[in-house]
Amino acid sequence: MDQKLKQLIDLAVIDDERKSRYIDALTVMNEEQKITFAVQLWQLLSDKMHLQFVEKAQNMIEEMAQEGAPLYTQEDFAKVEEQTVFEFLRKQSGLNDEDKLAQLRDELLSIQQMVESHDREISEIKNKIQY
Questions:
Q1: Helix (H), strand (E), coil (C) string for the chain
Q2: What global pTM score does this model have?
Q3: Could you read off the pLDDT of 84-96 as tens digits, one per residue?
């Protein structure tokens, strides 16, 4: 868990001093705090990537609105979304190797799945407590 959190910190946080403080803080966090922190970092990364995709998608839509412009398909938008993720990861991580970027993307997806699983468990516990 700590290694994955360090990866998230590296990707989500730009300032080196802040990165160092966050990594140091991991040693005093309990598992619940680490999961909460992972959720927040994942949300930050997700929001950053989504904003970049939305900007590109809006440009594509504006192009389509112009006379004689190409029409984009859902596949085109999906490709742009995938490219946006890779470009973001490349920029944030400094990696250029496509295989390593794909591996990093997969690791982030596994963190996302872990976070979603944790959220479901918390919701189930809250529901049981309320009834």
A1: CHHHHHHHHHHHCCCHHHHHHHHHHHHHCCHHHHHHHHHHHHHHHHHHHHHHHHHHHHHHHHHHHCCCCCCCCHHHHHHHHHHHHHHHHHHHHCCCCHHHHHHHHHHHHHHHHHHHHHHHHHHHHHHHHHC
A2: 0.68
A3: 888 888 888 887 8
